[in-house]
Design brief:
Length: 449
């Protein structure tokens, strides 16, 4: 075991970090992450998964003090954090950190927003804590990647709990020792499985990451202690959940290299590896829109991409809209047939369209480990012997072709109209862009109640 105590080094950094040290471009990216968070959370306003969870959680709520996004309901702080993290993740439309595939904002922002309704938090304090939380969770993710996710751990959940713990710990002004104890309690609650993707259960562990991160920090504030090396100990998180973890990922260039700059935002409600597939199929559909009226003209469709594309999205015969968000078969079929890829195209109704299903049945995969997760080559072999080929080197929304600020604003308009009809998002947008001037971040939650 290294002589360095990496766990304590992370705790020391969070404790000593000053908001004045944050570069302006890092702060701006955090605002973009928050804008995207509210867009995807508001989309869930009428979603069955969140409604079912609300009905159960409310039975155990201690006090109705915290807002549930897009709903005329309040609940206690811990359950509000869980529900609002779930809301942001339920449609697979949330942000994605590259290369870990962590959705970093949901567990951290949801925790901070719930806390900000209990204790007055300024916009500057909020952004600082958000950035630190995302930094810690993504660095931990870097240290265990790519083994961790490939093994089947839902990395947003397992690493997100550390991010929310450090973010809340910063707002509580915990000492470095207390922050390390919070990491210990978080490590004891790190869980989530890829097997749950496409089901309601997937969102549970994301909610737990937000709730249990708050709990870890609150316990530490009361000197609830933990192991000395919760991350890098012999039986700590990194060695148990990783294979040959890279401890230096935790501390290399800490404070000068920012993981929030590796965050990306999705243009489509699906697993991130499907973004280039959807973009390619939509562009093919637009270029040859006379071809898709009769799916029988297609002999087969080949997707050549990173092995993660096949591993995560080879899901034929999906039965629900939720499952379709991680199904290449459905994504290809619906894009070629309808020429759109919004939330309606990944619904139960779309899944039951036999024409979409018949196209998806013609799909085959070719793995190419040299390709990035945001690239794909789509080849469509037609029965008249012609072959249509379309290549995406960097999908829209990737680090190389990011969504612009205006795109994120439009995403908020579109998704809020879907989940909360009649909501006017411009005031929320204005408040986020100028959040440093806010004296009470709790105002944001009052806007989206």
């Amino acid at each position: 075991m290294s002589s360095k105590n990496y766990s304590q080094l992370i705790a020391n950094y969070v404790s000593q970090s000053n908001s004045s040290d944050l570069p302006s471009y890092v702060v701006h990216e955090a605002k973009r992450s928050l804008l995207n968070y509210f867009a995807v959370a508001l989309a869930s306003g009428q979603d069955e998964t969140i409604s079912k969870a609300v009905n159960v959680f409310r039975q155990f709520s201690a006090r109705e003090t915290s807002t549930i996004v897009a709903r005329n309901q309040k609940i206690d702080m811990l359950n509000a954090a869980a529900l609002n993290a779930m809301a942001a993740n339920v449609f697979d439309f949330d942000d994605t950190h590259i290369p870990t595939i962590i959705h970093p904002t949901a567990p951290v922002a949801a925790a901070l927003l719930a806390f900000s309704e209990q204790q007055k938090v300024s916009g500057r304090e909020f952004l600082h804590a958000l950035i630190l939380g995302m930094e810690v969770e993504c660095r931990i993710g870097n240290a265990v990647s790519p083994f961790h996710y490939s093994k089947g751990w839902h990395i947003t959940s397992t690493c997100g709990v550390f991010g929310s713990a450090m973010a809340i710990g910063k707002l509580l002004s915990l000492s470095a020792q207390q922050l390390n104890w919070a990491l210990g309690s978080a490590s004891a609650q790190a869980s989530g499985l890829v097997e749950t993707l496409g089901t309601m259960s997937k969102s549970m562990s994301v909610g737990n990451a937000a709730r249990n991160g708050i709990l870890s920090a609150l316990l530490a504030s009361n000197d609830f202690n933990g192991p000395d090396r919760p991350l890098d100990g012999e039986r700590g998180f990194l060695k148990v959940f990783g294979e040959n973890p890279n401890f230096d990922c935790l501390t290399d260039d800490l404070g000068s290299k920012w993981e929030v700059l590796n965050n990306t935002y999705k243009p489509f409600p699906c697993g991130v590896v499907l973004n280039p597939v959807i973009q390619a199929c939509l562009e093919l559909q637009a270029q040859h829109n006379d071809l898709w009226s009769d799916p029988q003209v297609i002999e087969f469709i080949e997707l050549k991409g990173n092995p993660l594309l096949r591993q995560r999205t080879d899901r034929p015969n999906v039965k629900t809209g939720r499952e379709s968000q991680v199904s290449a078969q459905h994504a290809v079929g619906v894009c070629l047939l309808r020429g759109k890829a919004g939330l309606q195209e990944f619904s139960d109704e779309a899944v039951n369209d036999v024409s979409i299903r018949s196209i998806g049945e013609k799909l085959r995969f070719t793995d190419d480990a040299s390709m990035s997760v945001d690239a794909v080559v789509v080849s469509i072999k037609c029965r008249n012997k012609s072959t249509l080929v379309h290549t995406i080197d960097h999908a829209k929304g990737s680090l190389d072709d990011p969504l612009a600020d205006m795109d994120l604003e439009q995403k908020l308009y579109t998704l809020s109209a879907y989940g909360k009809p009649g909501f006017e998002p411009q005031m929320l947008i204005n408040e986020i862009w100028s959040i440093e001037q806010m004296e009470d971040v709790g105002k944001l939650m009052r806007l989206v109640a």
